[in-house]
Every structure is written in structure tokens, then in C-alpha cells.
Amino acid sequence: MVTTQTAPFLVSGMREKDLESVMDWFVQRKQSFYALGRIYVSKQEDLEEIFYRSIIVVHNELHRLKKETSFESWAVSHFIHYGRDLSKNKSFRDSEGQKSDQTLFHALLQLEDQEKEAIALTYFNECSYAEVGRILDISVEKVKSCVFSGVRKLREELGHGSFEGCREYHEHYLEYLGRTMDRPEKVEFEMHIYHCHGCQEDLASFQEVVLSLAGMTDVIEVPAGFMGRVTSKVEEREARRQRKKKKRKSIWLAFAGVFAMVVSIGFVTGGFSSLYYAWTEEDEQLRAILQHDLGELLNLESESNGVKITIKSVVADDVQTLVFYEIEDTKKDNRYMMNAHEGVHIENEYDVMRRDVQHMFYSPPVDQGEIQNEEKNVYKGTLSLLPVSVDEGTIKLNVARLMQIVQDPKKDGGYRGEMTFAEGDWSFDIPFTKQSSRVHKLDKEIDIDGIPVRLDKLTIAPTTTLLQYSFQNQGGNRRIDVITFDSLETDKNKVEAGIFGSNMYVESFDQEGWSAFKSGFDTLYFENPKEVNIQFDSIHLSVDDRKTIPLDNLKDLPQTFEYQGNTISIDEIQAGNPAKLILSHDVSKDRAYERVNYGFSSDYLMNENTSIGVSDGDGVLMDKNGKVHEIDVYEYDKLDQPRYFETEQTIEFYNDSAKEDVNLTKLEIEGYSTTKYVDDRVKVKLD
Questions:
Q1: N or C terminus: fewer CB in 10 A for the chain?
Q2: Is residue 188 within a helix (H) or strand (E), and if so which, with residue range?
């Protein structure tokens, strides 16, 4: 009997791959991670970005976590990586400014990188010196040295004086305050302190800073709605990944006489394999792979608890390893699918798979109607795994959990996102031969709406086509956040951009400020084109356009003001900590902005402990012609140039370091975000 469950997985198991559990883990530790993030950036949207990127990569890479590695240390390492990335970007550094106040976070920012990271990990995240050393890849002694020197610098920066004490006893400060000193040494140290007035003052001022650091995570307040915005962004990303991918219809030949004639010709000419699969294989992608001898039918079977999995075939290349499978529920009319992030484990992953790849492809649910599968208890799908690291070998695939999918009758080809699972034990030894890919260097720089964009290379693999591109955001008041593509076109074929493989961050920055990404398309492998037309679709922009609106003289509400030719209404102002501002925006198809980005100002101290949070309210999804549509993830791709306009926003202003109310005097708009659809088309020759 198949057992099902809907309860979320526990990340503490370290091998589970449930996104909700990863998010819950970060939510439970939001205080310490928020404090850690503040040593890199101060803006709320930047801190949210660090959390967002960390949650995504921890979820996606969880299958690579070694058993001997601490999950917490591993997750913190990813968090630090993205904090460093954002802090290195000039636009993020400039947001800090040169503050006159000497707050603790501002003082931390003045330290060397290893000093502030060692201090934050030790006191904010409560890591041991050994754990800090593993995270920062330095020795324990180096960690202690960084913490000691950093605390002393903080003491001077915060105005606690500069005491020397006896240098031979400096090395004991951390162990003594951390209560890790052996008793004989502790007694000797305390006797010296008792008789040495200089060391007393030195240790006391040192301890004062340490206590302040240790208490930071208790007094710092994570803004209301902060984690809600992070989790919403993660969930929106997952929703986009769940969209139905358009499939071309299979072509069916109808006459048995024609079949017999074609088969006989196939035997004579040696083309039987290609012709045979054209008739017998319903999956168009698998059919092409089999016809070109890039894989073979395996039909490996394993059954557990009345559910049978058949591995039909596999194709491995430099981009991914694609497994074609079929799952049959022999007892009930259920359909189950495999998900690389849910109960799927590669036993010999470290021997045969590449672990340096920074992303995995997502395998969306296959519309069974597209492949003529009407059996309610059978599901035919694909599973994307990491690319292989060896030319030939065997993948030891273990499956412990299958996800049940239920087609939503209200959505054409859409599936309900119910997290219900079948438990079992299915194991396979899958032989593979790695197929080569064709990599074409493009090195073509173009201009998209006034911003430099570089087309770097095109990788044409049997399973997909990847376009690597970069854009440059240095200078000017406009920055590209995301580029989307429509298609690639050759003289024989046109392939669309894949929803589930678009905008993969390569994490490659050079000194000139180029940010590298990859976008996936259906494969062009079987035609070997000599040139390709690249059709762009849209660019998502952040635009600087500052405007200040006085708030101190407002009496009768609502009050309106103009921004980018549109009317914004101030509907409500609430004093307090947080202070709250509620805005509403007029909307039309000609509105320039989709979302407004805010700064802050008040009469209270504008220091590192003042923050702002923006909660999304209602919004409108509108097509090119101004028609409003229901916000539906399955219908989004069917709309002509859709844009989502926010119509309501609630802005909250916090004094994180005290209980005093925030006195709002003005609202500062920094700029806005918008989507611009483009029709740029670039022809590139392939070497």
C-alpha cells in the first residue's frame, strides 16, 4: 500500500530538499542572519536580496551537502558569499554613505573584511572558533586574532578609550570572557588582573564591546514584513518555474500499409532505427535523441508499494543529464512524478556527476495530453540531473519519494500544486555515455535601449541550447535587472526560450562591472546551424528618479502628488515605531513605472539602526492594450506583453535601536522599476 503525507520535511535531516523547510529554517534564524547581513549592506531591499539568493541556492544545492559537513555552517557560507557579492558592487557600497554617528554597525563596516566577518559569526551567529575557521577557510588562531583585533578597533571607534594592558595577557581575553580557559590559567590570569590596574581597565572596556556584540541579535528588530517579502519572492520564483511549457504536437501517421513500406525501406537502407522511433516513440524530445543514436531504450524497472517506475532512456551532455521515465500506479488511478529536489538521491554523485555547476534545470510536469497519454494511472516525464563528470559510467539512482500531481480542470494543462507524496524504495543502475556539445564563442557587444549588452557564447547540447550573455550597469541612471528572450531562429527552425531555464545567474563579475547570465532554449543540436538570429523579448529596469514629498505640514488626507506623470495619493499617515504611510497609485496602460522604490527621512537619528520596509498591496495585471486580467500564473504567458502595476503600498519606518517613535517629515522616492518590451533582433555567425 502506498503511503502519503503532506507534512513538510525537516531540514535537520540534511538530505531533504523541501523548499518550505529551508525557508522555515531561515525564518527561525532571521535575527542572527539579519545582523550578519548588516555588516555588508544596509538597505532593506539589499538585505532581502541576500536572504532570497541564499534560500534559493541552499535549496537547490542541498543534495550536494556532505554528511560530515554542518548544515548551519554550510548555509552561513552561502549567505556570506552573497553578502560579499552585493557589498562589492559600487551601487551597494555607495548606499552606505559616510555617517557621522558612531553606531556599532557603522563601526563594524570600518573593519577589515575578515575581522568583521569573524566577529559577526562569533557573536551574531554564535559559531565556535573552529566553525568560523571552516566557514572563512582560515585557521582557528587566525580567527582569534581577527576577533581580538576587531574588538579593539571597535572599542576605539565607539569611544570606549584606548587601553593597552599587559601585552602578554592579551591572548587570554577571549578565552576568559568566553569561559573556555583552563582553571590553572584562569586562576593565574585573575590574580594578575586583581593586581594590575591597567589590565583591569583594558579588560573591562574590551568586555563592554564584547557584551554589546553578543547582545546585538536580541535588540535588533527585523522590520515587520521583511521575511514575508523574502518568502513571497521565493514563492513567486517557484510559481514561475511551475508554468506549463508549450510542447509541439506529435505527428501521427495513419496508414498501416505506409508503415509496412517504410519499415521495409528502413531495413534495406539501414535507417530502420530512425524510422522505427518516429512511429513508436510519443515523446518528441526522446524520439529525436533515439533517432540520432544519442541514447538507447533501457526500460529499467523497479516496483515498490504497488508503484512501478520504468527508466526508459537517458542522455548526458555538458549541460545536464536528462532521464526519461514512466511511473505506473498498479493499484489506484494516481499519477506520480519524480523531482530532483524531492526524495531523489544519486548514490555515487561525487564519482560521476559534476559538482561545480551552479544551477540545476527544473523538470516541469509534462502535459500528458500532449503525448497522447490518457491512462489515469500512468505518468510519463523527464528528470533533469547534474551533468556527468566522466565519459562513461553508471548512475546509481535511488528514489524514496514521488510527488503526486493532480491536473486542475480549471487550467488547460495546469497542475495543482499539492504537496502529497508516495513513499517507497526504487533503485536503478543507469548506464550512460556522455555526448559532446558544440560551444560557439560570440563575443558580440550590442546596445539594448541604451545599455551595453554582450553576447558571450552559445552552447548547443543534445538536451538544450544555452545562451550566455552579460550586461553592464556602471554609470547612468538606469540599470538592467533581468533580460528575457523570445526565441532563437535559424534558416530551418525556431526554438523558444524555455521558461524553466531562463535567467540563470552565472555569478561572474569582472572589473568593468559586467554581470553574466545564461538563458535556455529548446535544442538546436540536430541541425548544426551556421548562424542564429537572437530575438529579445523584454528588459526589467531599475531607474533612478528622485523626488521628495514633505509630510510634516499635511493635515487633511488624502493628499496627492505627481510622479512620472501619474497621480499618487497619500491616504494615511500613522505615527509610532514603526511609523506607517499608506499610498495608492492611479493606473493606466501608459504608466511609466510598475513599482516605486523608496528611501526614508525623519527627525529622529538617521543612523544604521533606522530602516524601511515596503509591503506590497493590491496590483493590476494588464496587457499591451490596457486590458486588465486575472492574476493567474498559468495564463501569464498567453498575454500580449503583460505588466504588473502595483496600486497600493504600505511603507513602514523603524527605529531599530530605540523605542522612540519615528517622526516622519518627508517621503523620499529613489526611483522606480519597470518592464520594457523590445523587438531587438541580432544575427550572430557560429564558428
A1: N
A2: helix 183-195
What DSSP assignment string belongs to 140-178?
Answer: HHHHHHHHHHHHHHHHHHTT-------GGGGGGHHHHHT
What pLDDT shows up at residue 9?
35
Give residues with Cβ within 8 angstroms of 160, minimum separation 6. 205, 208, 209
Q: Are 429 and 435 in contact (CB under 8 A)?
A: no
Side chain identity at residue 51, one-letter code: F
11: pLDDT strictly greater than 70? no
Alpha-carbon distance of 542 to 240, in angstroms, equals: 21
What gap in Å lies between CA 47 and CA 29, rounded to an integer?
A: 14
User: Which carries the bigger pLDDT value, residue 214 or residue 617?
Assistant: 214
DSSP string, 575-626: -BSSEEEEEEE---TT-S-SEEEE---BSS--STTEEEEEEE--EEEE-TTS
Residue 282 has pLDDT above 90, yes or no: no
* Residues 6+ away with beta carbon under 8 Å from 261: none
Instruction: Count the Cβ atoms, other than its own, within 10 Å of residue 434.
Output: 18
pTM of the predicted structure, to 2 decimals? 0.56
Distance between CA 109 and CA 83 in Å, rounded? 13
Q: State the cell numbers at 192.
A: 594578575
473 neighbors 509 (Cβ within 8 angstroms): no
CA angle 514–515–520, rounded 5-degree value: 130
Helix, strand, coil shares, percent, the chain, to 5: 30, 35, 35
Query: Which residue in 419, 462, 411 sits closest to 634, CA to CA?
Result: 411
- Per-residue pLDDT of 449-463, as tens digits, reads 888 899 999 999 999
Name the phi and psi angles at 177, rounded to 5: -70, -30
Print burial letters for 541-565: b (CB count within 10 Å at least 16), e (below 16).
bbbebeeebebeeeeeeeeeeebbe
> What is the C-alpha to C-alpha distance for residues 379 and 407, in angstroms, rounded to an integer?
12
C-alpha 364, offset from chain centre: 17
Give the H or E element holding residue 315: strand 307-316
Query: In terms of C-beta density within 10 A (0-12 exposed, 13-18 middle, 19 or more buried), how is residue 155 classed?
Result: buried
CA angle (641, 364, 398) in 5-degree steps: 160
Buried residues in 475-485 as b, exposed as e (16+ CB within 10 A)? eeebbbeebbb
Domain boundaries, the chain: 10-229, 256-433, 438-533, 552-664
Residue 358 pLDDT exceeds 80: no
Q: What SS3 class is residue 57? A: helix
Query: Where do we find the cell 584562569?
Result: 186
Q: Is 325 helix (H, G, I), strand (E, B) or coil?
A: strand
Q: At residue 437, what is the residue type?
A: S
The per-residue pLDDT for 632 is 62
57 within 8 A of 80, measured Cβ to Cβ: no
Return the closest-CA partner of residue 564 out of 588, 538, 583: 588
Residue 262: which residues within 8 A CB-CB, separation 6 or more? 275, 279
Residue 684 has pLDDT above 90, yes or no: yes
User: How far is it, in rounded angstroms, from Cα 79 to Cα 87?
Assistant: 12
User: What are 495's strand-pairing partners?
Assistant: 488
Comparing CA positions, the residue from 7, 481, 23 lying closest to residue 238 is 23
- Tell me how far apart the terminal alpha carbons of the chain are, to the nearest angstrom: 56
| CA–CA separation, 76 and 572 (whole Å) | 40
Q: Three cell numbers at 327?
A: 511511473
Domain 256-433 listed as CATH 1.10.10.10: no
Alpha-carbon gap, residue 20 to 31, rounded angstroms:
19
Report which residue type is found at 287: R
